[in-house]
Design a protein that fits this description.
The chain is an alpha/beta fold and about 290 residues long. The chain is built from ten helices and 13 strands. α7 links the parallel β10 and β11. α4 packs across α5 and α8 packs parallel to α10.
């Protein structure tokens, strides 16, 4: 895996100009002001939409018009955030591309430490393991992704988080296969944010609660030695359901978990546990791209 940037040093925030834009910018601004994080705003024109609306238009005139309008809106958002003392810039191009692929590519190009993205899945659609741009970014990003679910009531849209300081109390959904880099990132993140960590592990197969608790001991020790308040939690049951219930029970402000990077089609489909957590959780999820 490429060397990851210092946590919360540069946050890429893709905007689709939908009703989740303002709530997402509010959260990005809160993070930036608290942790001196640079925010980079991006908009991608979906190539499929251009193909759909280009009938009857001169494509050489349509795309520049869409790009100009998008840049103007981005600059307006930049001005609004700057007025609140947020460190913010606009990515200077408006790619016409597959949105998820462009977001992942730009994150690499600008050296983003994380991508902050909101899901617009309403109702039953949020349980689908494919399709949405936010989930495709989670599945393919080589940078940590902060995924926040949105909900709506009538015309009002809000993001699901308990505290804008989403790093205050992280539930680390641990697997024995997680790489050392994943733990290193968590420690660097929590040392910067002065947050606490609860490490949760769901025994699998013939694993006993005692053996799993013992396995977690060096992990929690390393976190503790870094000066971070930490506890461990071992619970039997369905992985996704127990993680979500535990996050609610202990008042977690975010769930931290991993996702394997692979180019094969089968590996690009979200595993059932992560997919369910994405659909059920009422707190943000920080997804680390395992290698």
């Amino acid at each position: 895996m490429k060397h990851l940037q210092e946590p919360l040093s540069r946050l890429l925030v893709p905007l689709d100009f939908s009703r989740v834009t303002d709530p997402l910018l509010n959260l990005a601004g809160e993070i930036s002001l608290k942790y001196n994080t640079e925010v980079v705003l991006l908009h991608v024109i979906e190539e499929g939409i251009v193909d759909h609306i280009m009938a009857g238009y001169n494509i050489s005139e349509l795309v520049p018009k869409l790009e100009k309008e998008a840049l103007k809106r981005l600059k307006d958002y930049e001005k609004k955030l700057s007025s609140k003392n947020v460190k913010v810039s606009v990515y200077p191009e408006v790619p016409v591309a597959d949105p998820a692929a462009a977001i992942v590519s730009v994150a690499e190009e600008v050296g983003a430490s994380e991508i902050l993205i909101a899901s617009k899945g309403w109702g039953w659609k949020r349980f689908l393991p494919w399709g949405s741009t936010s989930r495709l970014v989670v599945k393919t990003s080589t940078r940590p992704v902060i995924y926040v679910r949105a909900t709506r009531s009538g015309d009002k849209v809000r993001l699901l988080y308990k505290d804008p300081d989403i790093f205050k109390n992280i539930l680390y959904a641990r697997k024995s296969s997680h790489p050392k880099e994943m733990l290193d990132y968590l420690i660097r993140l929590q040392r910067k944010t002065h947050g606490r960590v609860t490490v949760i592990r769901i025994p699998e197969g013939s694993e006993t609660t005692e053996s799993v608790s013992k396995e977690l001991e060096p992990v929690t020790n390393e976190i503790s030695y870094a000066g971070i308040e930490v506890e461990r939690l071992v619970i039997r049951g369905n992985v996704a359901e127990e993680i979500v219930k535990a996050a609610e029970a202990i008042g977690s402000t975010a769930i931290y978990t991993g996702r394997t990077v692979s180019q094969s089609l089968s590996e690009l489909i979200l595993g059932s546990s992560l997919g369910k957590i994405l659909g059920m959780t009422k707190v943000p999820i920080i997804v680390f791209p395992e290698q």
